[in-house]
Amino acid sequence: MISAVILAAGKSRRMGRPKMLLPWGDTVVLGHVISVFAAAGLEDILVVTGAVREKIEGIVSEYGKDFPVRTVYNEDYQEGEMLSSLKCGLRDLAGSGARAALIGLGDQPQVQEKTVRLVCESFRLTGSPLVIPSFQMRRGHPWLASRRFWMDLLELHPSQTPRDFLDAHRRDIQYVEVDAPSILADLDTPEDYRASRS
């Protein structure tokens, strides 16, 4: 089984309001990301919460009526940036039967179902311990780490980033070329949000 870890703990400082809760289609940004991952066949979706925890847990609870989604709270979200949320998610999955974690961003509603499927299928077909989508030679999200590398990620120093980990293990990466620039796009500022909806 591949479990998804959706990082949704950020404080949205640059956006000025909780970006996971911004309207997107007939739902909100995070709701759309959850539905895309579920449509791609993920049977276990873990949302890592932090800021505006209660509101995000409320959204996930609603989606949990139809999709296999749940939450875990990152107590270190204010200091740890993305890495602390990734570690929180992996620690939660440690006792599960998951063979790999698909790491996605809660503020990336442009993510496409076909991209999610391609990354997961590449892992199933090749067994590569790291699978990353690539657009025009640039790495994006969601990317996959097999259980083999979870301890390496958990042992990263707080000053390090997931990028540092990937750079150190570049020879283990299986790249999946996609024609979707959406793997590079997330929502950090009001300008990003307006541009994504235009």
Q: What is the total number of structural domains?
A: 1
CATH topology: Spore Coat Polysaccharide Biosynthesis Protein SpsA, Chain A
What general form does the structure show?
A: globular
Secondary-structure element series: EEEHEHEHEHEEEHHEH
Q: How many separate helices?
A: 7
End-to-end gap: 37 Å
Helix percent band: 25-40%
How many distinct beta strands? 10
Mean pLDDT across residues: 88
- Please give the CATH class: Alpha Beta
Any overview of this molecule?
The model has no long low-confidence stretch (mean pLDDT 88). This protein has helices spanning 29-39, 53-63, 77-93, 113-126, 150-154, 162-168, 190-196; strands spanning 2-8, 23-24, 27-28, 45-49, 69-73, 100-105, 130-135, 138-139, 143-146, 173-177. The protein is built from 7 helices and 10 strands. Strand 4, helix 2 (53-63) and strand 5 (69-73) form a beta-alpha-beta unit. It is an alpha/beta fold and 198 residues long. It has a single domain (2-196), classed as Alpha-Beta Complex (Spore Coat Polysaccharide Biosynthesis Protein SpsA, Chain A). Helix 1 (29-39) packs parallel to helix 2. The strands form 2 sheets. Strands 1, 4, 5, 6, 7, 8, 9 and 10 form an 8-stranded mixed beta sheet that branches.
Which tags fit this structure?
single chain; 198 residues; alpha/beta; Spore Coat Polysaccharide Biosynthesis Protein SpsA, Chain A; 8-stranded mixed sheet; two-stranded antiparallel sheet; globular
Give a quick summary of the entry.
This protein has 198 residues and is of the alpha/beta class. The protein has a single domain, classed as Spore Coat Polysaccharide Biosynthesis Protein SpsA, Chain A (Alpha-Beta Complex), CATH 3.90.550.10. It is built from 7 helices and 10 strands.
